[in-house]
Amino acid sequence: MTDKTVAIAFPGRVGVFWNSEPWPIREAQNIAREIEALGFGSLFMPEGGGKNALVESAAFLAATDRLVVGTGIANIHFRMPIPAETGARTLAALHPERFVLGLGVSHAPFVEETMKGTYGKPLATMRTYLQRMDSVPAEIEEGARPARVLAALGPKMIELSGELADGAHPYLVTPEQTAATRAILGPGKWVISEQAVAIGGDARDQLRRAHSHLEFYSQMDNYRNSWLRQGFDESDLVIGGSERLARALVGMGSPAEAAASVTAHLDAGADHVVVQIAVESPTTDPLPELRELAGALQL
């Protein structure tokens, strides 16, 4: 879209969110190529400590021709702000309008227990990080500035994503929350929402996969608080989420029904939606379900 401060050349309005960390990089590149061939417009990946998301992004950008690649998200506790900014600018210089730097504050248990770091107040920590990024001189890869989006769930972080970034990357939210994010940011910023789906198998199996997908997140305060703000209550916050929560956050049913959960975010104001297959395990090939979904979305 051309009405944004920083352009992103999405070939289409629906992309893919995929945890590629457990995969050998050459196999992951092959999957990225097929994702592009299927007609999806992007590939976003998380950063859980298994691999460096900026290095993975470089590999996927090099392996494809038009696919937009984004970090969903790069953990700000993994790297200092200045190398984060210069690394992102380098990717943007090599692949103009095809790299999106998604940033997030991660979660207190991971930062403090696994990384042995300090988890400060999320809003203040992110603000300081972004200000340090902005201190990099303009002549470093001059003119190459990637779009920068934040993992923003609460209203104050959403506001910050409009103030010091180029938009937000909502994750595990309802279409109503996508609409709320758009209302805060206005039309000039990017809203790139994630939508999980479980297709194939029977209804009971799909619900099982949805609960499994939510298991980790349902134990993280950032998501629990987000879901409470979205209108859920404590009864929905059991491990793996209640059935009501699972059905609200994970598109289930036929490929067409799952596709409808994706387009609901577009209708709510998202510029782009990345669809995540709720897989059996991190090493499950997402391509069979993505092929079905591509057909249902008429990519």
Automatic annotation (TrEMBL):
<dbReference type="Pfam" id="PF00296">
    <property type="entry name" value="Bac_luciferase"/>
</dbReference>
<dbReference type="InterPro" id="IPR019922">
    <property type="entry name" value="Lucif-like_OxRdatse_MSMEG_4141"/>
</dbReference>
<keyword id="KW-0560">Oxidoreductase</keyword>
<feature type="domain" description="Luciferase-like">
    <location>
        <begin position="9"/>
        <end position="234"/>
    </location>
</feature>
<dbReference type="GO" id="GO:0016491">
    <property type="term" value="F:oxidoreductase activity"/>
</dbReference>
<dbReference type="InterPro" id="IPR050564">
    <property type="entry name" value="F420-G6PD/mer"/>
</dbReference>
<dbReference type="InterPro" id="IPR036661">
    <property type="entry name" value="Luciferase-like_sf"/>
</dbReference>
<dbReference type="InterPro" id="IPR011251">
    <property type="entry name" value="Luciferase-like_dom"/>
</dbReference>
<protein>
    <submittedName>
        <fullName>LLM class F420-dependent oxidoreductase</fullName>
        <ecNumber>1.-.-.-</ecNumber>
    </submittedName>
</protein>
